[in-house]
Design a protein that fits this description.
Shape: globular
Distance between the termini: 73 Å
Number of helices: 21
Largest sheet: 2 strands, antiparallel
Order of helices and strands: HHHHHHHHHHHHHHHHHHEHHEH
Radius of gyration: 25 Å
Strand order of the largest sheet: 1-2
Helix content: 55-70%
Structural class: mainly alpha
Length: about 650
């Protein structure tokens, strides 16, 4: 019996690597610390009532933000491990199998478990406030979306210490992801972690599209809507059409692995190129799904910190919506070298270049907005200004890659790695960090320290260029992706050393940001006005942090920059004569419980344990039935309580 237990444990847990043992110890210590703190300070009830069961979009946004920062740390550690391995020739820090696992988890985590939740954090933190709404269209679904993402992310990350990480690349091309090349359970962790979180992502897209279309304040016509909300709408359109493709693709791959189907196996009559087409039909819109909201963030920041109305509002709206359409007509540029033919390659080369036009429109609009503006060099504006040259280089190298004949040289090389990170770090990460700095005072009631923030800013930016500029040269010199070691004779060492130094500088920049947040919690400047930056949109018209109901009285919008217009007319000082009871959704435990059942079912499917998967799915359907019979789902905040809250927050009524 003891021998059977030992055999099971040796295959169930990942063993034999000091890094894994270190992770085991850190996970155990972290769990013990969390349990101790919650028990010692008697916070279990508070955790359940205030967070695990909340449907408040602001708290959900904060949970998304915390999760995304944790995933940024995890994905960043993976990046540093890879750079340490590649710093010098013939390094034996990671073996080939471990390196494959690390770059697979790095890409997957950064795109799906860091960028997506950071984007959804900003959706939740900002959009209802910009629209003058008291919550999203479907608060229950919003909570369920977060917990599905969270459980999917935990399931995926569990593979690091249980069963083994996936190692077929972050897009898991067959045949590497089929049973013949990946017989372990790592690939199943990949499939089910993404499937569960992907359901939440799709639900979020639907939720915020309905919120934007149906819950705007009176008078806020579509063409008076803030540009960030427009960018969210554009992103949601792409989510709704792209994520079902991902769901179906991974379901077919799982059927190949679990039931012996042959959708993507050549020897069984399938075609791996079908998988490549399907995954990129999701994958390229996904790039724009995460970058378009960053464009919306920059539009808000440039306008506020230049003290000017954004230049070319209508062209900005049109360009974002055009990108959401064109993004579905560019996916083949990811495999120009795979023999699709000259006509197909020419079409997708032209469509790829065409999508650069609406992107360029926005850059010029931001520059014209800043022209002769009274620019304030605060942290959000610093990140915005850093983005512009970075994204211009990323766009230019993207056009180079769009030239099909030239792509035969660039494809699969470190030139492509540099371009990809130039766009996703310089565009997405810089954009979301700008948004976090900008809206942080609104959600938390205090600013993040400027001095520490500038240290982080310069470390991030200098480190970024040191890390990725040499990789363009390495690509031209013939260094391909997935190389885990190389010889001194290649001449790549100097560029890789510089690249590794840059990566560690970005890591230090992240540490400064953690320090900045910790320091600012106690010593950051408090936002006593609710309008710390002199904002132009409705979120700055309410106290910081906002009350649970957001707006005591739903505002009426007259102009494009609604709050700026109110301030210009002196309407910002007027307080209502009376208040009405406010209708709000009640907290619910069902989203959290249902996501736990999804986790159980996913874990069962990973190992092929039907005794676990079937009860998990029964629990999921049981939660759906329980929800359908839930009638006590809302309540009213009395008018007197609203008055007292406003008096406490504003100091006068």
């Amino acid at each position: 019996m003891l021998d059977k237990i030992k055999d099971f444990a040796s295959t169930f847990f990942v063993t034999g690597d000091p890094l894994i043992y270190g992770a085991d110890v850190s996970i155990a210590l972290t769990m013990i610390a969390i349990l101790f703190v919650l028990t010692y300070y008697k916070k279990w009830g508070w955790l359940w009532k205030e967070w695990l069961t909340t449907v408040d979009h602001k708290k959900i946004g904060i949970m998304y933000l915390i999760s995304s920062l944790l995933m940024l740390f995890r994905g960043g550690v993976d990046a540093l491990l890879m750079r340490a391995q590649l710093a010098l020739p013939n390094v034996e820090f990671l073996n080939a199998e471990h390196y494959n696992a690390v770059f697979t988890t790095h890409g997957t985590i950064m795109i799906l478990f860091m960028a997506m939740p950071m984007m959804f954090a900003l959706f939740n933190m900002v959009v209802p406030l910009q629209l003058g709404a008291r919550d999203v269209a479907y608060p229950f679904l919003n909570a369920l979306s977060f917990w599905l993402f969270f459980m999917g992310a935990m399931l995926f990350n569990l593979s690091f210490v249980i069963g083994g990480s996936p190692d077929a690349g972050w897009l898991s091309y067959p045949p590497l992801s089929e049973m013949s090349s990946s017989p372990g359970v790592g690939q199943n962790f990949y499939i089910w972690g993404i499937q569960i979180s992907g359901i939440g992502s799709l639900a979020t897209g639907i939720n915020f599209m309905v919120t934007i279309l149906k819950m705007r304040a009176p008078g806020m016509k579509m063409m008076k809507m803030p540009l960030f909300s427009w960018s969210v709408l554009s992103s949601c359109v792409m989510i709704i059409f792209a994520f079902p493709i991902l769901t179906v693709t991974l379901a077919l791959l799982f059927l190949d692995r679990f039931l012996g189907a042959h959708f993507f196996t050549l020897d069984g009559g399938g075609n791996p190129m079908m998988y490549v087409n399907l995954i990129w039909m999701w994958g390229h819109p996904e790039v724009y799904i995460v970058v378009i909201p960053a464009f919306g963030i920059f539009s808000e920041i440039v306008s506020v910190f230049s003290k000017k109305k954004v230049f070319g509002y209508k062209s900005m709206v049109f360009s974002m919506m055009l990108i959401s359409v064109l993004s579905f007509f560019t996916w083949v540029h990811h495999f120009f070298t795979m023999g699709a033919g000259a006509d197909v390659n020419a079409f997708f080369a032209i469509s790829t270049m065409a999508i650069g036009i609406p992107t360029g429109v926005k850059v010029f609009n931001w520059l014209f907005t800043m022209f002769r503006g009274r620019i304030q060099m605060k942290q959000p504006m610093l990140w915005t200004l850093a983005f512009i040259p970075c994204f211009v280089v990323g766009g230019a190298t993207g056009v180079m890659l769009a030239v099909a004949p030239a792509d035969y040289q660039y494809h699969n090389s470190y030139f492509l790695i540099a371009h990809f990170h130039q766009v996703l770090i310089g565009g997405v990460v810089f954009g979301y960090l700008a948004g976090i700095y900008y809206w942080w005072p609104k959600l938390f009631g205090f600013k993040l320290d400027e001095r520490l923030g500038k240290w982080a800013f310069w470390l991030w930016n200098i480190g970024f260029y040191l890390c990725f500029m040499p990789q363009y040269a390495l690509g031209f010199m013939g260094m391909t992706r997935r190389v885990y070691t190389y010889g001194w004779d290649m001449g790549w060492a100097p560029y890789n050393i510089v690249s590794t130094v840059g990566a560690f500088m970005m890591g230090i920049g992240f540490i400064f940001q953690v320090w900045q947040i910790s320091y600012s919690i106690k010593k950051g400047d408090r936002d006593l006005t609710g309008d710390t930056w002199g904002g132009r949109t409705l979120e700055w018209s309410i106290p910081s942090p906002p009350p649970v109901y957001n707006f005591a009285v739903v505002p009426e919008v007259k102009e494009q920059d609604a709050w700026w217009d109110m301030k210009e007319k002196g309407l910002d000082k007027i307080r209502p004569d009376h208040y009405e009871p406010i209708h709000m959704p009640k907290n619910s435990s069902i989203p959290f419980i249902m996501s736990v059942f999804w986790f159980v079912a996913g874990f069962g499917f990973v190992f092929g344990w039907m005794w676990m998967a079937v009860p998990g799915m029964i629990g999921v359907f049981g939660c759906l039935i329980a929800r359908s019979f839930s009638y006590d789902t809302d309540y009213y905040i009395p008018a007197e309580e609203v008055r007292e809250t406003e008096l406490a927050l504003r100091g006068n009524v």
